[in-house]
Amino acid sequence: MRQKIVAGNWKMNKNAGQTQELITELLQNLPQTEAKVIIAPTFVNLAQAVNQTKGTAIEVVAQNMHQAEGGAFTGEISADMLTNIGIKTVILGHSERRAYFHETDALLANKVDTALKHEMKVIFCFGEELKDRQDKQHFNVVEYQLKDALFHLGEDAWKNIILAYEPVWAIGTGETASPEQAQEMHKFIRETILERYGNDVAENVSILYGGSVKPDNAKEIFSQADVDGGLIGGASLKADDFVGIINGI
Ligand code: PEP
């Protein structure tokens, strides 16, 4: 059985006090669920969030990391720094990292390798832009993002990979892919993995959907056969909304 996951990407939101407050509210209201619940606060608040959630059902993960082991990379954070404070998972390839920080699939392949070397799990984000979909290139774009960043991996590495399909046109826009559009792409992604790695890897990899998921559309999206949960941006910043989305699993 594939793992169901609901992950909240807090992006550059919530200072230390607000981080503590939101985690307290989430812990008080977390429903019984088969899903793994993940939150990704900003770097400076990770250590306190790890401490606050110790022994609870919430896993705290990082939003990014650098590919190098260490050295002269001002402002960056290494895998060792993350694992040393108890972080076991990192989000890589978010569309905002790709758009504003020029992260390419070649660079992301390096980041993935570094994370796996440090025995971290990776939530790998990818997805087409609006123009790609209008040009009917969305399947091509998604296929090459996957291949260029992940298909150098051996079969064994895939137990530590979680995929997050996030059409860029649906992120933070209020525009959601329809459940049918999400399912169509998730099925394509699973088939692409099946062709390269076989049934075991394809059937066991969790594929999350991200893009304007809200409490009122979560259930329908999560009920699609190849959708194993969601990566949530805006709606993960309020406990009520995030809990509502978790209840959609
Ligand atoms: C995201 O940034 O990963 C995301 C899905 O954002 P939102 O839910 O706000 O569209």
From TrEMBL:
GO MF annotation list: triose-phosphate isomerase activity
Domain of life: Bacteria
Pathway info: Carbohydrate degradation; glycolysis; D-glyceraldehyde 3-phosphate from glycerone phosphate: step 1/1; Carbohydrate biosynthesis; gluconeogenesis
Catalysis: reaction(s): D-glyceraldehyde 3-phosphate = dihydroxyacetone phosphate
Compartments reported by the entry: Cytoplasm
GO terms of biological process kind: gluconeogenesis; glyceraldehyde-3-phosphate biosynthetic process; glycerol catabolic process; glycolytic process
Keyword line: Cytoplasm, Gluconeogenesis, Glycolysis, Isomerase
Cross-referenced Gene3D superfamilies: Aldolase class I
Gene Ontology CC terms: cytosol
The protein's Enzyme Commission number: 5.3.1.1
Residues at which substrate binds: N9, W10, K11, G172, S212, G233, G234
Pfam families: TIM
Catalytic site: H94, E166
Family as reported in the entry's similarity comment: Belongs to the triosephosphate isomerase family.
Quaternary organization: Homodimer.
Protein name in UniProt: Triosephosphate isomerase
